[in-house]
Specification:
The complex is a heterodimer. By secondary structure, chain A is of the alpha+beta class. Chain A is built from four helices and nine strands. The radius of gyration of chain B is 20 Å and the shape is globular. Classes of the chains: A alpha+beta, B alpha+beta.
Chain lengths: 125, 365
């Protein structure tokens, strides 16, 4: 199971990459393997303000719809049109082309609330 | 909860094969092994094998078996030759579907029925209540392991394993001996592809599953089973059929014989046939790219009037779009009618289409 060491993780299986005060959010390799076969991604509207824990996007496999939660609080700045067009990217490249949305954090320091790779690895094992 | 789940004799094989196991209709079953999409494609293009050990088997025997079954079931068993089978319904007095099943005639006086896992208790109750003294009814559900082997290569897989046995024709049944075991093979399935359902003594089911896999069948779970059957517009009992709905409302009148004489539920069906039905199960297909439709999502008119809900829905792997079925007022059941499906507040445009949604290459045997 791939858990990149330079990312942060939420307990609901989102990963976070911080650049300035913007985070990129996707779902982990573990999550995509559990969901399998993503066939639809519902993206959040740009400009929407979300709080930590808000259902923000939806990833659907053949068998189920799963909410993707805002890992921290802030405002949506971008949603990935490529996963809307090709939802399988969430399976094939979860940490790269399969990213789902970006958001500007209310507080960039809040990233420290999230798990590091070792803590996330311990959680899923 | 988990201690009340029923377990099929193939469970060890599923776990060894890496299946994701889930509760389904009271049973602990594999939903998938690797990927629903891959398993779906294997059945459409090659061959897949499903555990159907949860399904029930009932034997009906006696000089009066045919006469009695024709009182109990909606289709006409009298037309079945020895070795033939047909899709049929066990109805209640209101014409509602207790179960949909396949009934096979093995001889003039012996019938074999394959019934739904979740309805074994209800079926046995209904049949036992009406059982005459000269017909013997035996619930053999615990004795058999079941495997559905499905796909364009299914008959070739069978021929490799049983070079001396000829598969029965479509809807046919054959009971034969191999390796000292009594085996039953039925040329039917729930995928629209060629294939067969194979029943062995319960304790040998896991070995047979591995044998089919070794000869080219891919293990497939309930996820692909559902997407495959829904692409064909086949109903799932409990979703698309219930004791409150009749086979005519489900659009399955072809499998009801109103001219064979009386049977339980006939009065209601005959009246529906004369007076017309007020609601009907229709196939719906998205007009646009949208979130996968699922059971219980609301069906609306384009102007927003709620007219029903999906009884089944899925992202069709073959058609790459959303498909589903719903009971709607007859005024909205015409082919080509535009309707909407509500997914979390978003409305996706869909059209009433003819079933099956997907045409297979299966020409039958």
């Amino acid at each position: 199971m791939n858990i990149p060491s330079d990312l942060r993780y939420n307990s609901s299986h989102e990963w976070v990459r911080l650049e300035g005060d913007i985070i990129t959010v996707g779902i982990t390799d573990h999550a995509q393997a559990e969901l399998t076969d993503v066939v639809f991604v519902e993206l959040p509207a740009v400009g929407r303000k979300v709080d930590h824990g808000d259902p923000t996007a939806v990833v659907e496999s053949v068998k189920a719809a799963s909410d993707i939660y805002a890992p921290l609080s802030g405002e949506i700045t971008e949603a990935n049109p490529e996963v809307e067009a090709d939802p399988a990217l969430v399976n094939t490249d979860p940490y790269g082309k399969g990213w789902i949305f970006k958001m500007r954090l209310n507080d960039a320091a809040s990233v420290s609330q999230l798990m590091d790779a070792a803590a996330y690895a311990a959680m899923i094992h | 909860m988990s201690d009340t789940l029923l377990h099929t004799p193939l469970e060890a094989a599923h776990i060894e094969l890496g299946a994701k196991m889930v509760p389904f209709g009271g049973w602990y079953m594999p939903v998938q092994y690797t990927s629903i999409l891959d398993e779906h494609a294997a059945v459409r293009n090659n061959c897949g094998v499903f555990d159907i050990s949860h399904m029930g088997q009932v034997v009906i025997e006696g000089e009066q078996a045919e006469f009695w079954l024709n009182k109990m079931l909606a289709n006409n068993v009298a037309v079945l030759p020895a070795g033939g089978g047909q899709y049929s319904f066990l109805l209640n007095e209101n014409g509602g579907v207790i179960d949909d099943l396949i009934i096979y005639r093995e001889s003039a006086t012996k019938f074999f029925a394959v019934i739904n896992a979740s309805r074994i208790k209800e079926d046995m109750a209904q049949l036992s209540t009406h059982l005459p003294t000269d017909v013997v009814l035996t619930n053999e559900s615990d004795l058999w392991a079941g495997l559905a082997v499905q796909g364009p290569q299914a008959s070739a897989v069978f021929a490799h394993i049983f070079p001396n046995v000829t598969l029965p024709p479509r809807n046919g049944i054959l009971r034969f001996m191999e390796q000292g075991q009594e085996l039953v093979v039925c040329r039917t399935g729930y995928t629209g592809e060629d294939g067969f359902e194979f029943f062995s003594p319960a304790e040998h089911g896991g070995t047979w599953m591995h044998t089919f896999i070794k000869h080219g069948a891919k293990p497939c779970g309930l996820g692909a089973r559902d997407s495959l059957r829904l692409e064909m517009g086949y109903p799932l009992n409990g979703n698309d059929l219930s004791e409150e709905l009749t086979p005519l409302e489900a659009g399955l009148g072809f499998f009801v014989d109103l001219n064979k004489g009386d049977f339980i539920g006939r009065d209601v069906l005959a009246r529906q046939k004369t007076d017309g039905i007020t609601r009907k199960l229709v196939g719906l297909q998205y007009n646009e790219k949208g979130a996968p439709p699922r059971a219980h999502y609301t069906v609306e008119t384009p102007s927003g009037e709620v007219i029903g809900e999906l009884s089944s829905g899925v992202h069709s792997p073959s058609l790459q779009t959303g498909i589903g079925m719903a009971y709607v007022p007859i005024a909205y059941s015409k082919l080509g009618t535009d309707l909407c499906i509500d997914v979390r507040g978003r409305k996706f445009s869909a059209k009433v289409v003819k079933k099956p949604f997907y045409k297979t290459a299966n020409k039958g045997a």
